[in-house]
Amino acid sequence: MRSAPKLRTREEVQRDFDRRGISIRSWALRNGVDPMVAAHVVSGRSKAKRGEAHRVAVLLGIKEGVIEAAQGAMQEA
To answer: How far apart are CA 28 and CA 56, in angstroms?
Structure first.
């Protein structure tokens, strides 16, 4: 049985960016997401319930969720 990965807090994500010396913007561009949406998710201005904000939160490990691929298939993250 696969155990669920530990979710990270927004503060842990920001500390990780600081530790690695990368910006939210550069991470977002490398991951194909809008930098402003990523910044809003990390800062807590977005609840990340739907759309691209949901995708960002799942990619960052802030929340569990499923990311739908463009073709309609579903992926668990």
So the answer is: 8
